[in-house]
Amino acid sequence: GALDDLSSRVARLLVEEEGLLPGNRVLLRGANGAMQFAAWLGILKAGGVVVATIPMLRAGEIATILDAAQVSHAIVDERVRSDFDEARGKSDALRSALFHEGDTGGDLAARLERVAPGFEPVDTGRDDPGLIAFTSGTTGKPKGCVHYHRDILASADTFSRHILAPEPGARWACTAPLAFTFGLGMQFVFPLRSGGTAVVPAKPGPEGLLDAIERERVNLCATAPTAYRGMLAIIEGRDVSSLTTCVSAGEHLPEATWRDWKARTGLSIIDGIGATEMFHIFISASGEDIRPGATGKPVPGYRACVFDEQGAPVERGTGRLAVKGPTGCRYLADPRQAHYVQHGWNITGDVYRIDGDGYFHYLARADDMIISSGYNIAAPEVESALYGHSAVQECAVVGLPCAERGQKVKAFVVLETGFEGSCELIEDLQEHVRQAIAPYKYPRDIEFVEALPKTATGKLQRFALKS
Ligand code: 3UK
Fold first, then answer.
1. Which of 17, 260, 286, 459 is the most exposed place for a label (fewest CB within 10 A)?
2. Distance of CA 97 to the CA centre of its chain
3. Could you report the per-residue pLDDT of 36-87, keeping only the tens digit for each?
4. 414 within 8 A of 449, measured Cβ to Cβ
């Protein structure tokens, strides 16, 4: 009721005082919290289109989005205001900016108290845009993915309903921001659709998530593989007994991480591949259907296959992943649409193997396949092997140019506390990989590092290690 009231006030204020018209784009900028959630709903009630941005973005990146989406209104948390203020000067479309501070403070909160309650939502259609989600864009100009009102519910009624099967009243916590559609689903849309409660961690990262789980008795948690490893490193003595469902997405979940989490908590992590272009997860498995190391099978409502080398869709074997279903890619005015959607299939840029039982096994991003002495080596497979070694906290594998082999496999390794880098440890890690997978895949170079380069959404930036 409180969320309904607050979001209706946001809608009324936007329409009656700030001149918002249906179809106008509204920038949202702030950390996850009740005011940002109410603003998100209020924008949709007002017939607007949500353009949420990750709080970490800087002025240049915000200016690009303001321009690309022709944003006319903005709702910004004071605490991340400065980069926005710098960016807004460069925009000719922006007409109004509202500021709040956390959930209850700032000018916007005061104005909302004075607005008349209640608002009849604008009569939008199922095929009206509800949001534009910008891809994290590791290279090139960010792409705006347009999702309709129906896409938002489609993900809740496919992945959430069939794979998570959440109980009403369940408590959900997630580390991802609303601007990342993974977080939008797991932290807001799915709990709302299933009558659950969103628990927003007070601190970012694995420790904040663990605190939230313990303090608020969270049932469903969702984060990236790195954060599961981060939680495992500090889980000793913590109470996570309230958890029933754990979701991992954003990157491949190595089998060793899945097994470590299972050994420590008794819970089977639900891996799922999603994409900003697809709104949410489209291949996954839960409960007894999980095969550790595999992503799973197409979520009910979706079809998936791989394109073989001749470009023909096949149901078994290895190739570029192709998927279709109730959601799909609609880039905002971008010629790259023709790369992502081919013959009615969404081509995600990932290489997958489909086994005899129809399970989908992640191999690599197409650009993370290493070709060394004529062999195809998937970087994540070598990483998965390294994760089976107790000294490895985190790792990244890349192919570096090599006169002799074309490319050679190099691993960057962050060590667990208590281990120190040495020639013996390098040899030990190399031998460990040779025992775990085909010996030609072992990393010929290993470098110990303090940390690995990550994108704003926590994805490994392999390309940054190639220079
Ligand atoms: C990779 C995975 C292996 C894959 C996302 C869940 O990550 C999300 O969206 P992005 O647009 O990136 C998409 C790409 O990320 N990926 C994601 N999940 C997995 N690779 N195993 C996985 N489980 O390369 C994909 O093409 O940032 C994830 C829900 C919503 C999302 N937007």
1. 17
2. 27
3. 999 999 999 999 999 999 888 889 889 999 999 999 999 999 999 999 999 9
4. yes
Mean pLDDT confidence for 234-255: 96
User: If you measure from the C-alpha of residue 248 to the centroid of ligand 1, how many angstroms do you get, rounded to a whole number?
Assistant: 10
What does the alpha-carbon distance between residue 88 and residue 98 come to, in Å, rounded to a whole number?
A: 12
User: What pTM was computed for the model?
Assistant: 0.93
Rounded to whole angstroms, what are the CA distances from 282 to 157, 259, 287, 304?
Answer: 12, 23, 17, 9
Rounded Cα distance, 229 and 212, in Å: 17
pLDDT at 125: 96
What are the pLDDT digits (tens) for 186-197? Answer: 999 999 999 999
Contact 329, 349 (CB under 8 A): no
**Which residue has a Cα nearest atom 3 of ligand 1?**
252
Identify the residue whose C-alpha is closest to ligand 1 atom 28. Answer: 274
Q: Residue 80, class by beta-carbon neighbours within 10 Å (0-12 exposed, 13-18 middle, 19+ buried)?
A: middle
By percentage, how much of the chain surpasses pLDDT 70? 99
What is the atom index within ligand 1 of the atom nearest the CA of 362?
3
C-alpha gyration radius of the chain: 23
Beta bridge partners of 98: 75
Q: Give the C-alpha distances (Å, rounded to integers) separating 171 from 198, 215, 220.
A: 6, 12, 6
Q: Which residues fall within 8 angstroms of residue 288, CB to CB, at 6 or more apart?
A: none
Pocket of ligand 1 (CB under 6 A): 135-136, 181-182, 249-253, 271-276, 280-281, 295, 348-350, 362, 365, 457
Fill in the amino acid letter for 143: K
Q: Are strands 270-274 and 245-248 parallel, antiparallel or unpaired?
A: parallel
Which residues touch 205 (CB under 8 Å, ≥6 apart)? 175, 227, 230
Of the pLDDT bands very low, low, confident and very high (cuts 50, 70, 90), residue 348 is very high
Tokens representing 282 are: 């489209």
Q: Look at the alpha carbons of 6, 150, 98, 56 in this order and tell me if their dihedral is positive or negative.
A: positive
The answer to whether residues 76 and 84 touch, using CB atoms and an 8 Å cutoff, is yes
CA pair distance 115, 106, nearest whole angstrom: 15
